[in-house]
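Structure (tokenized):
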């Protein structure tokens, strides 16, 4: 279980949010939305431990995520709005490098199979610098097919994807939730995944600058 307790984040002279609290249980998806600059990416990076909050804390199963350190980061998969891949490496090399750094190395054959599933057949051995933005995004999102982390934090995961890839990614996310996983995502695109019985959290400004 993830608990965000009285969280406050200040960037420069702006207070993005303060007193922000919510709980995410197993099998829940939280759709985070708000206007540009409302603090969506900052909140996600704060939960991941990449940004230190000005106040409040993030708890994982009742314990401080900052104190848990790598024990907590091993329990999450974070994909930001940037792809985070190495341009000189091909898709297979990028995926294997990520898995090796995550402590779960995979074979070249396994990486090839995963990239084929995300629609990169015929492009697996091309350096990332020659791939389209959509193909680069697929290399990044292939990590989800290998992730056993219960918590997924996805910042604009559908960016640059065509309709078929969007539908495929939605199915992967939905399956993760159905298996008891937790997902926090933000997207500017209208997708069926964020409609219906999902949690909603909107960040925005009031007159006093608070959420």
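Design, position by position:
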């Amino acid at each position: 279980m993830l608990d965000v307790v009285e969280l406050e984040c200040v960037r420069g002279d702006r207070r993005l949010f303060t007193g922000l609290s919510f709980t995410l249980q197993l099998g829940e998806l939280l759709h985070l939305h708000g206007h540009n600059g409302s603090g969506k990416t900052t909140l996600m990076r704060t939960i991941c431990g990449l940004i230190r909050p000005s106040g409040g804390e993030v708890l994982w199963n009742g314990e401080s995520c900052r104190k848990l350190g790598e024990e907590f980061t091993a329990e999450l998969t974070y994909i930001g709005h940037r792809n985070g891949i190495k341009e000189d490496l091909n898709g297979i090399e990028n995926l294997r490098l990520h898995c090796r750094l995550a402590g779960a190395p995979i074979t070249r054959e396994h990486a090839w199979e995963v990239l084929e599933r995300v629609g990169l057949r015929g492009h697996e051995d091309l350096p990332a610098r020659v791939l389209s933005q959509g193909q680069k995004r697929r290399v990044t999102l292939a990590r989800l097919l290998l992730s056993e982390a219960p918590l997924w934090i996805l910042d604009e995961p559908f960016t640059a994807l065509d309709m078929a890839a969007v539908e495929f990614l939605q199915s992967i996310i939905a399956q993760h939730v159905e298996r008891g996983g937790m997902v926090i995502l933000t997207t500017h695109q209208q997708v069926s995944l964020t409609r219906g019985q999902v949690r909603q959290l909107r960040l925005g400004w009031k007159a006093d600058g608070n959420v």
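Reviewer-requested clarification: Residues 206-211 have pLDDT under 50 and may be disordered. The helical segments are 40-47, 65-68, 70-73, 91-101, 108-117, 133-141, 163-178.
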